[in-house]
Specification:
Order of helices and strands: HHHHHHHHEHEHH
Structural class: mainly alpha
Number of strands: 2
Strand content: under 5%
Distance between the termini: 17 Å
Radius of gyration: 19 Å
Strand order of the largest sheet: 1-2
Shape: globular
Helix content: 55-70%
Number of domains: 3
Largest sheet: 2 strands, parallel
């Protein structure tokens, strides 16, 4: 819903959902032309990365299964744009949403092993994207009683990564930030 409001230019509807500081930064970035970044802005990165990829590398990417790496490699070589690439990969079996996820998993090098490990260890933190005044009261209760760290500010995130950079939690969080 937040992303939809941003793309529709309905920032006034975001004030109940985003902290004031986040909304201010978002407005400044939009005004400066640096936001929102559409997925099509990743077109060259996705196409180049796929054109340089090997079959073996793509076989290790999360959600690329059943020989789909061959379809991706062929589509990347034959497509000049991201929409053409998506349409070349899409089929009855692989809908557009799944195709988009696979392309981003490939771009961010999300491996099957990495996701299996994340699934095995379970959630490592709670990351808040926004909350209201009423949510603030609830948040304090959650922070006091949660066994997982509750991340509500950039400084919480930076501290978590800095204190244990090799911990699975840090790897999970860094991937979350990339996405």
């Amino acid at each position: 819903a937040i992303r939809r409001c941003i793309y529709r230019g309905a920032l006034n509807r975001l004030s109940p959902a985003l902290p004031e500081a986040s909304l201010t930064i978002l407005q400044e970035e939009i005004k400066a032309g640096r936001a929102p970044i559409p997925v099509d802005g990743l077109e060259l990165a996705i196409l180049n990365q796929l054109r340089l990829a090997t079959r073996e590398r793509l076989q290790n990417v999360y959600e690329i299964t059943e020989g789909l790496e061959n379809r991706l490699l062929l589509a990347a070589r034959q497509s000049g744009t991201l929409p053409a690439l998506r349409n070349a990969i899409k089929s009855k079996r692989y809908n557009m949403t799944r195709v988009n996820r696979m392309l981003l998993y490939s771009l961010f090098s999300v491996s099957k092993n990495q996701m299996a490990l994340f699934d095995q260890v379970g959630p490592q933190y709670i990351r808040l994207l926004g909350f209201s005044a009423q949510g603030r009261k609830f948040l304090q209760n959650v922070k006091n009683n949660s066994v997982l760290p509750v991340l509500s500010t950039g400084s919480h995130i930076a501290k978590l990564i800095k204190t244990a950079p090799e911990h699975i939690r840090s790897h999970m969080l860094l991937l979350d930030i990339k996405a």
